[in-house]
Amino acid sequence: MRISKVINVSLSALLMLCASAVASVNAQTNQSMTPAPKPTPTVILPQGQSEAKVAVETDLYCAGFIQYAPAPINPEIVGGEQEQEKRSYAQGDYVFINAGSQQGIKAGQDFAIVRPRGQLTSKFSVKKGWLGVYMQELGNLRVVDVKDRSSVAVITNSCEAILLGDLLRQVSSRVSPPQREEVTLDRFADPTGKQKGRIVFARDGREMVSRNQIVYIDLGAEDNIKAGDYFTIYRPAGTGNLDGVVNEEIAHSQMDGFESDRYRGGKFSSQSQRTKDYTNTPGLFFKNEPVTTHEVKRHRPPVPRKIVGELVILNVQTRTATAIITRVAQEVHTGDFVEMQ
Questions:
Q1: What stretch of H or E contains 31?
Q2: What angle do CA 185, 187, 192 make, to 5 degrees?
Q3: Which domains does the chain have, with CATH numbers?
Q4: Suppose 213 and one of 110, 170, 209, 219 were both cysteines; which one would form an S-S bond, judging by CB atoms 3.0 to 4.6 Å apart?
Q5: Are 179 and 54 in contact (CB under 8 A)?
Q6: DSSP assignment, residue 76?
Q7: Is this structure's pTM higher than 0.90?
Q8: Are the C-beta atoms of 152 and 143 separated by less than 8 Å?
Q9: Contact by Cβ (8 Å): 61, 172
Q10: How far apart are CA 173 and CA 220, in angstroms?
Q11: In sequence order, what DSSP letters do the residues of 184-197 get, joined into one string?
């Protein structure tokens, strides 16, 4: 009797354990069959692209300019921390300037470093008088320690080697003109009739320049020029070569040397100009006299000018402006004409 009671208790416990296991399996099955929540999609809106510029910061602040008005008396660089072994200075170097608290200098002030290179004149300009003094822009510095009559400054940016004697001037804020949508350059566009000038100088003394290089034109504030104005670069048709060719004829019109003595194939050159027509001359039809290139050009009607590129103004002075070349059809050189678009 006791044995059967023990067996009944054990069976009951076993049944309860099996029921518990089945319930657990069912719960896991139901949980696994429950669909997982769908992820919420993330919408990324496109960010506005920054407007393309025609000039980078180096072009803006290292371009140089031609200053017409006399330059004010400015502080200058008179020494450097490592002057015992350095003659020129660059970005990161500490230099001394000859102005301090007595001259109103304060720590944290920024200055542009310039170097006057001399009076600029040009045979290309039709303006009377001088155009100004060419000012080379060399970089920037920041005052870090102010003394009574001198200050210490660190060069924050350098375009060229900086030397003792270079002058300081207030930093002018410059903004690059936006890049226009580029279309095919019309190489035969008619003149606009607007302001015209010449390229009188190029940075680093270059005589032939191309895209993204700096030039100076003889139009300025007195000609109602402003930063952002676009100009067409051109020259009259048939001009622009460094060396002029006086004799442009390739070959004689006719001569005995063009034919053999035996077969007499003809004494006419296939590479020479036509013979002049004397039909309207009484008693004379042909005179075996060729038409020359100079004669053809001298009697022709006006032909399109030769357009070689495009530039945009970066900064404007009194009588001149600094510009950067944006497009070219061929090389551009000093002396080329410019016309406002």
A1: helix 2-33
A2: 90
A3: 57-170 (no CATH), 196-237+303-340 (2.40.30.230), 256-299 (no CATH)
A4: 209
A5: yes
A6: B
A7: no
A8: yes
A9: no
A10: 18
A11: ---TTPPP--S-EE
Q: Express the helix, strand and coil content of the chain in percent, nearest 5 each.
A: 15, 30, 50
**Tens-digit pLDDT profile for the chain (341 aa)?**
455 554 554 555 555 655 555 555 555 555 555 555 556 666 555 555 667 888 888 888 899 999 997 767 789 999 999 999 999 999 999 999 999 999 999 999 999 999 999 998 899 998 988 899 999 999 999 999 999 999 999 999 999 999 999 999 999 888 888 888 878 888 999 999 999 999 999 999 899 999 999 999 999 999 999 999 999 999 998 887 666 666 566 666 655 566 666 776 666 667 777 777 766 666 655 567 778 888 888 888 999 999 999 999 999 999 999 999 999 998 899 999 999 99
Would you state the structure tokens that stand for residue 323, as one six-digit string? Answer: 């510009």
Length of the chain: 341
